[in-house]
Design goal:
2 copies of one chain form a homodimer.
Chain A lengths: L11 H14 L12 H8 L3 H13 L3 E4 L3 E4 L10 H4 L18 E2 L12 H13 L3 H5 L8 H14 L6 E6 L1 H13 L5 E6 L3 H9 L3 E6 L13 E4 L13 H8 L5 E5 L15 H4 L6 E5 L11 E6 H15 L4 H12 L2 H27 L5 E2 L7 E5 L6 H11 L1 E2 L1 E2 L12 E5 L5 H21 L2 H4 L1
Parallel strand pairs in A: 3-13, 5-6, 5-7, 7-8, 8-9
Antiparallel strand pairs in A: 1-2, 4-10, 9-10, 11-12, 12-15, 14-15
Chain lengths: ~475, ~475
Amino acid sequence: MLRLDTSSDVPLYRQLYQHYSSQIEQGQLQTGERLPATRELAGQLGVNRTTIAAAYELLEAEGWITGEVGRGSFVKARGARKAISWNEFMPPAEPSRRLGAHPAGPLISFATSRPSEQLFPLDAFRKSCEEVLTGPGLAGILQLGSPGGYEPLRQYLLESARQEGVAGPNDDVIVTNGCQQALDLLCRVLVRPGDAVAVEDPVYPGLRNLFREAGAELIGIPVGQSEAITRHRPKLIVATPNFQNPTGATLSLAERETLLRVPGAVIIENDIYGALRYSGEPLPTLKQLDETGGTILIRSFSKIAFPGLRVGWVIGPRPVIQRLIAAKQITDLHTDQFSQAVLLQFAKSGRLREHQEKMLSAGAERLRAILRACEQFLPVGSTYSRPQGGMNLWVELPEHLDAGELLARAQAAGVTYLPGRHFEVSRSHANALRLSFAGLCEEKIGEGVALLGEVFSNEFAMQPMEAVV
Amino acid sequence: MLRLDTSSDVPLYRQLYQHYSSQIEQGQLQTGERLPATRELAGQLGVNRTTIAAAYELLEAEGWITGEVGRGSFVKARGARKAISWNEFMPPAEPSRRLGAHPAGPLISFATSRPSEQLFPLDAFRKSCEEVLTGPGLAGILQLGSPGGYEPLRQYLLESARQEGVAGPNDDVIVTNGCQQALDLLCRVLVRPGDAVAVEDPVYPGLRNLFREAGAELIGIPVGQSEAITRHRPKLIVATPNFQNPTGATLSLAERETLLRVPGAVIIENDIYGALRYSGEPLPTLKQLDETGGTILIRSFSKIAFPGLRVGWVIGPRPVIQRLIAAKQITDLHTDQFSQAVLLQFAKSGRLREHQEKMLSAGAERLRAILRACEQFLPVGSTYSRPQGGMNLWVELPEHLDAGELLARAQAAGVTYLPGRHFEVSRSHANALRLSFAGLCEEKIGEGVALLGEVFSNEFAMQPMEAVV
């Protein structure tokens, strides 16, 4: 029995501590058993509750018990388990840089390929939400859904794709958490270790890392040199024909044709930026040009509307979509249904179309601004792409400059970007950098490129003449 | 030049068709080139626009061109590509049954482990949405987020876990698309082909299929026989100590201790149903009992609130969470941020707690109802589990009955369930079935089990006496 000695020099809370720790040590109190509640024990022993609390605090600090607010204190397991050495337990991983996920603070940031949140049509979003919240289907939307996607959205996407001519009678659609998950599911279903997969070089690192992790043998093909692919006999070709990330390049009709002629290869067409054409004539998608119907097309609401809602989709031959649905089921059951319903409302109501027009006119202005600034401020010997849409422009500095090494200096000057290295597949892009212009207003674009031009030109001027030649 | 012969017997649209198809055949019109707009061509040729439209329709039907609404008609590629044989291209897959994803129509369905949508607190959900929609952070929520999760929600989850005593100083948290994605990411990070992974047998098929597809060697351990695990020397143990799916079983403290004593194994504790205890004293989690801090805990809002919003989370040692975040980044960038913000609001406002109480009282009633009905209606020789919480109860019929074979008869009688076969790992559960009771009101539960009892008892009675013994 527990008795406290009030005449002892040992404080009461300490006596309590000794009592319980020795009971635990001797096994009289077993792991997981609950100690009396502080109030209860204080009453029993006729002492203040804070005394009990102090004893329990010490027991917890010393690792004898574990406390749960509202549930009580439990005896902890001791010594039975060895701590896991995680570095040994998990195979080593490349340190992953979280590209595009973190705002760059007070810097003028060309680092992230995403829309400007100043352009978000918040009222239109609120309205779409409210329509879903007051609609009759709300409870069903909040209930467990189907791995293929929220059925009304699926039907809408398929119907739109049919009207546009990008979905044939043998195609179906699956809704995914944006294009990234579309690529991930395709990787799961189509790629086995050792498979040869042709990708653009430079390429979006989220795509490269995913296929690499799946064990694919990546073949980096310079953008626009599609005819080089055939001799590699790839199983898959992943291409972004419109406003590619990072180069901003658009494949010509002839290049699209060349891709379609690679024998035996399935094409995954990443059309994530396709809805953001600022100039030039629209070209048919690979999916439309592919008379076999075998091309797999990926699209998303993320670049045109709200990236924080993760909703994209895949249009492809029914057997492929069926397999993607099975993979989706074990991956995460289904995509968030509330966001699917809201985006459907946003699209069906015409608000998406309206917003797209604003995005197109803002994008066109921003593109003009960055081209103007590049022309004016980049050092002699630099080249840069002239995108017809999308969010990214690719700069190649004179060859002896290293955009990665210059980044710290650029940041010190108040501007940031992603060095070409991030996008490498098999060739070096050390002298290149990506400028994502869609998230910045014209003024910031001009200011930012001017700062970059200064940093690069200073470096350029500091090189000995021989090096320049 | 294109000239139509109005005196010819060949209809004008047919002449147009012949003109264009031969131009394409001879390569004068190249793949991807655009045909003139119908209005323009009608004007040029001085014919009716419907004539042009008819010709284009025929060209499209015959596969010469492809039409895009609002963009025009383009020459299609011909004969260059061979159609993909998808069955050869993709490795064969087991046909995936979409368990739990489809409502069963007019049947009384015990087939899906999900909350009843009649209990959804729609007004509380609407209120939480409106608070997010009118809050100052809306644009940021709709912008691209962080792979670890929406920071305010992460902080809230971690703080709550610390207060509860389930997160220690070395733990961190990642938000996932429900528990299913938590398991998927853990599988990616921790499992290599050939790894021994101990799971309960029977077990939730979404867990079994995932680990199997990752190449794990699954060791099925009967629920409550944890001491059998050690000799298999598993690398991982995946356990659901509270109200396991499908058995409804809860591990005793001693069994939890036994799991923690398996040397060298990392434990993944799936606590998806933990917040739904209807009776009995709460027990500490494995994570709390594990003094090394190495146990990885999975939880979710899906069973307690809205499964259609895909938000769950993992609490675990920081090195593991860091790797999960890297995996999440290439999987789908991050979980839907609007739903994260709404669920945070739902939890912080106290509405979740309020709803949990309603769920607990409804769950307790439903559990009592199904136990009562099982007692009354199941045939002699049946046994069934007596869960203290969660959504599922496990029935074992007399051994010679096959719950899979009886399903069609049950459905004909107006009731459905999932046969034990769905949950098999290494032992047969042919005579067993899972009854998910949380989604049905008491009346339907009684009615449904009565119907099942009738079907099973009829079958039971039809067996020759020898077979019964």
